[in-house]
Structures
1.
Amino acid sequence: MPYLLHQLLETSTKRYPEQEVVIYKNNAITYRQLDILSNQLAWVLKDTGIGKGDRVGICLKKSIEEIVAIYS
């Protein structure tokens, strides 16, 4: 059964909310934090008029924020 990326994040967040999922240099975030941040960014994008199926380019250096943007 195929899953969308955000569905996998939601499932993992329910199972392992406090487990670190992204670690970069001296920073880390948990599944819960990744879920919250990616949802916040998704709502910002929606509020600016970006809708389902629209494409959004991501141009970030390797970082935790890059992963948040990918999951949004």
2.
Amino acid sequence: MRARLNNRSAVPDQQARRLGVALVCTALSAAVIGSVGAPLITAVATGMHVSLDAAQWTLTVTLFTGAIAGPVLGRLGSGPYRRATILATLALVTLGGALTVLPLPFEALLIGRGLQGLGVAVVALLMSVARTHLPPERSASTIAALSVASTVGIGVGYPVISLLNQLAGLRAAYWLGFVLSAAALVIAWRALPVEAPGPRPRIDVIGALLLGAGTLGVLLVIAEPALWADPLAGTGVLAAAAVILAAWVTIELRAAAPLVNLRLLGQGPVFRANLAMLIAGIGMYLLFSLLTRYVQTPEDAHYGFALPGVAAGAALIPFSLLGFVAGKIMPGLADRIAQRWTYAISVAAVIAAAALFAAATGSLVAVLTAMAILGFGVGGVSAVMPKLVLVDVPHAETASVLSINQIVRSIGFSMGSALAGFLLAAATPTETLLPALDGYIFAALWALPPLAASALIVAGKQRTNRPAPTASTS
């Protein structure tokens, strides 16, 4: 039955529990949908007769649309239209899923994957629902679970999608994303509470266009290796993105109803949390990229384990299981020993995973253990980050602030992935296809400086959370 209660004190415990479960299931579905592209890149290239670079865009385009749409959806979802915004977004994700399963040209598949990327952006809105409509303790644990959903979704999605592709083909694998998106839409329609009446949110259209163009430019330079081959082109795109983002900042600071409250983002705790997320994202995804690539290294390299697609996907199950465990225990630990120390423990787990991998590359058990420890660290960082980034943030700005944090995380992950590719390419001898083993070890050690810097940033002086204004109806 659709919930119609609009404040925490009026939400019965059983109803709050159902709402929390529904929010997490919706976010988990979005995370699995977002991960659909990664195991299918080669299958798209061979099955649809396109280049690997073109097929890579079936993954990259979801990152782009999620990052660009995030702030707009965050602003739309900051008032009485939050439920409608979430449902409309999930309907577009479902439409995207339909385009991926129909026997249409490659261009239609790209459009579908772009629409599916909107599911990543909707997670911030789900967090704002939890913060507004759930009791404080359940709200904190639900937000942490929503943040960790992306980690769990990878481990669930990769092996299942790889197996479906192997058994039934490319379109059958994409069917999983379509079914999950339709299920998420139904769950959200039945569970999301109706919002209290309020003023219609104003969208800074110019600000949205500038932020979208600037973010696209930054992500394009990071994610498109072809631009690196031409320094002039890469520098030009990056310079144009910087100019656009500078113009966006100027307009946002002067706007009466800005897309993003930059003055709020500039506050010490919020700024430090986003900076830490950016830097930690580089280190975490650098190591994740190395591990997933290493276990699939062919036997010709005389290192690695030559795991086929399904087995390589199954290797991510420990990553997700430990990420889920971290999402369960870290919020409570943060309440007992302080958020910054919980964050430091999570980062230390990622550092330990990098060290274990570098020291024991010849043991499959050790590498899988490193993958599991990495999952615990990533899950811990994801679980505590909303607590860090929402310090002193009013309820009305929850979705907007979390949307920016999602962009920061996406950019950090993209930079980590790009750095992994660059370091391994640099370690690949001339006229060979595979990097030297030392290249993997050296690249893993590169993850340590950004991770340590991230922990130091968060370990700085932090203010404790103060209750957000209760007058807000968002």
